[in-house]
Amino acid sequence: MTDGTAWDETTQDVRNTARTAGIQAHYVRDSTVNQYFRGDDPQDVYQAGVRYLEDGAVTEARKQIQRAMHSGHDNAEVRFRWILAMLSKRKIQDLSAEERETLAASAQRFASWCRDRNAADQPGSTEREADHVTALAVVSELATSLLEEPRDSERVTGVEKRVLDLPDDLRASVGRHLGQVMQTAAEEKLWHEAVEHAREGQLKEQRAKRAWIYFEPPPALARVRTLHDPRGNHRWVRPVLGALPVTALVVLGVGHLVRVALTSLVPGAIIATIIALAGATFLAWQAFEWCYRTERLGYEERARGSDPLGQDEIVNNSPGRTDGFAHQVTRYFEYYFGRYRPAEFRQRPGGWRTWLTTTERVRRYLRNEVERLYRHQSVQAEEISWLIRHLASDVAKRWSDEDLYDFRERYAVSRRTKARALLSGLVAAGALLVVMPVVWQTAWFSSLLALVTVSLSIRPAVRRWYAFARDIRWHQDDMVDVARDQERRQNAYLRWKQKLEPCPTESEMAAWFACDTTLLVDEALQAFGVTRGDIVSHVVLSAKMPTGSSYRVKSTRDAMGPWRYSRYELSVFLVLPDGLHEYTRRWNFEEVKPIGAARRFHFEFEKIESGFSPNDRHVRLKLIGGTVKEFAMSGDGTIEPEGQPSQDSQTLEDDDYVESPELTGTAPELQTIYRDASGLVELRRTFEKASHRRAASQN
Question: Per the record, which residues fall in region Disordered (predicted)?
């Protein structure tokens, strides 16, 4: 099993309030994260140890359970789990001398403690506690009988039979963890019970409907654009002050012309002046409406219209980095827009690509908005995937409802507006033709100066007042859009939160994974035509399945817990008298089904004599003939040959090796080293090469 190791291409997520962020990064490689906090509750530390134990990370499980015991959380259940962790997936000969001494002393002390409790007629305050006292007594005596020299086979057999009398769940735990030290018919019975229990528990608690929730990060809150009123917070001062000088010149010039026309006492000129002023006012209103709608419609078409993007637009709007937040947001938009398509694009050939091309602009518009909203909010892209999914689904729905480009109707310039603007302009121009001769005859020089002043200042005045009025109107329209977006996104957020409520607990995830691995071992036994009693030892290695182009492998972890993946690559290594058998299968944890066909490999033990793990980065193997081959853990978690075999390596002390008739890969040291299955696969390839060389030398 993976021992707290991450090999991930996506941002990791820490879930629920009881979980803390040990790693928050885009790429995590070969990083073992052990989190210790001075104020940890011993009960929480113990539960973390149990989770590690159920996931096969027995080394870390022993550390956490022992830490809880030293912190004062010491009872029959904790002691029972500690013995399971000490012997889980190990044979007695795999224990070091120090471990044997510690286990023997502890087992005798625990057995004595249980006898004292039973003699005092106080096995436990509850029935469950009494069951743990009984289970502790049985496994303590089992450990003692296995460690004594010489070993009393009858005593061992008698203790193993007592295991069958334990409650179902405790008996299953003993069978799952102590299977390699039990070699009697009791072990076979326990194994069959474990397989049946795994079949029953694999789909319990609606796993197929709930497992995916565990990999979903807590959603970030719904956000919308922040709008700034151009009239608020003194923002109006600058545009107004900028327009006042030229506006004053226009008012002075027009005022002079009006005064001259009114003082001429010509009835026609007076009426024409009033008509010209009214026509000009109405023209300004309609012209503003025309210009604003035309400008806004052009902006909306460029931002989220249906025309394909130009090459310059693609270059200018592409994220610079390929591994940052913006790039991840872009990938999510492409994925969900391709996933949520209208029916017409799902049915036609090449509909996926056609839909992405059709929605290029609206997708870019929404992507830029989301990226700006969350870029500086310490939010990971996975946390806003719900929002991107909602936006993609909403675009597809609005397309089907013919409402995606509603801005075309909303900002279209009506014929009535155009007619009013043109008519009012003609009326104002006609009235000026009547007024100007009268004004010219009354005061031609001053009227000429006024006319020149108005002609020079009216354009900048109109432009500046239009910009100010346009910003106000734009803000008002944006307020309507933002209010609508806020309501839709908040409703989508609440729906998603409600959908995530039945998230499975870490204990449920551990139980489901234990069922998967148990059934995989049983599948491997059937594939190789052997029984549980035939195998000398076995180990199950789990790794994150490599991410493919058509799917995404999700991953997350609980505080002080192991990484969990939506897709696994599981490898079972069975040690048999004739050699080592490997059975590898890819597994969809969320949908509870295999992916593709299983792979089988086999190599014989005559190719290897012994092996040793001097540290967590290297492993040395002594081949037949004395040649030593050293492997180094590479950066990606695999094991690679380090240099060529040399006779100089034989000078290493024999005490540096774990001499064992079976492959050392079943030892705890290698369980820690092999962070994923690729390490043992590389090791297997090396064994095969050694076998070929040996066969060639014999021929």
Answer: 635-671
